[in-house]
Amino acid sequence: MSVLSRSRSAKVMGAIALIGASAMVLAGCAGSSTPTASGGASEEPAGFDFPVNCDEAEPASYTPEYTSTSEGPATDLEYTIGTALPVTGNLAFLGPPEIAGTELAAADVNEAAKGVTINLEQGDSGDTDNKAYETEIPRLLNAGATAIIGAASSGTSLQFIDQVIAADAIQFSPANTSAAFTGYEDNGLYWRTAPSDTLQGEVLGNLIANDGAETLGLIILNDSYGTGLACFTKAAFESAGGEVVSAALYNTGDTNFSAQVEDVLAADPDAIALITFEEVKTIIPELVGADFPSDKMYLVDGNLANFGDEFPEGTMEGAKGTYPAVDPDSITAFRDTLQSFWTGEGNPELADFTYAPESYDAVILLALAALEAGSAEGPDVAAHLQNVSGTNGGTKCTTYEECADIIISGEVADYDGVSGAIKFNEVGDPTEATIGIFQYDADNNNSFLSIG
Hints:
By secondary structure, this protein is an alpha/beta fold. It has helices at 6-13, 95-112, 133-142, 154-166, 197-210, 224-239, 258-265, 280-289, 332-344, 356-373, 378-388, 400-408; strands at 76-84, 115-121, 147-150, 170-173, 190-192, 215-221, 243-250, 271-275, 297-299, 320-324, 395-397, 413-417, 420-421, 435-440, 446-451. 33% of the residues lie in helices and 17% in strands. The longest helix has 18 residues, at 95-112.
């Protein structure tokens, strides 16, 4: 796919189905590792082997070293940032809010005119099935991008992370949540504004147990996101006294899930967790058709969409889901601004704002780190990302312009974004995050309940 310039993005985005989740903050999306069959340490029901080796879900241990020879602050720096976000593939519903978030952030940085000008090159990540990234990543790097924002899917990110690292460029995802990235040997060049699924799994498992379920079944996307989140959910549910009695895997590209639904229902679980992407739109009708109650279904960030009239009225009523998110009421002004900006560019209204805050913050943080470094080179920017996130203290600020003034004055800026306080650790993970809990109504749309 050729680059989506700002002038062309409206036409391309108009063709995308906008059905995402009305939530915010953490979430992640899929991976590509293939789990081995069976066994974690916990006891399984007689005749049931959990189909994932949960020992492999735990992150490896790796601490990068950061070096920078540049000196800032920048005064007239051109910074080319590419994006590899899902215009196509099984997470395409996340594309519009994420792309809109990057566009608004670039516009805010450029309007401020304080040391850094961003040249934003939009691209399509696709997914692990259609592999749009195979042509997009080389194109973006050849266009001079020294940072690439994406992918939304953890599995897709794992497909091209080595290529980005080899080019000494930063890969910065607003939505990857697989624990695999925590210990990935990335030379300090991989960063994310979405926290690891260790947190979402804990919240989801406890939510299901607290709702009264004693037994749980799972339908799981067979990649690093799906299997990792399933393992963390299982651990939390079992720690709360529950028992996982059934689980079934499927692969990216599968279109028929009858066998998985049948296998999970055969154990008669009290609740079912659907750890999937948009395949959930096929799985849910099969569960409903088998008379499994909707208020015993639990969704996750990869599929927590507003389905509306895609399903008959009442199909999803009572179902719940989790998503890395802040209270949506706390970012009303941001969502209004983003909607006005996006439609003002000729795009259709955003149906949701999933990962828009994280995408916006990714661009702002990169710009601030480049400003402080006085360089747009990947290793130089990476060496300053912790600092501008407030890991080492500094003066609180909430906009690029405000933070830039602090940096230009020779002080340390501590950026708190629209997705919340971030504060990166030494491996590029945010150390502060919250998980939102959402519930569906009779219209098959979800609304915020609480922070988990």
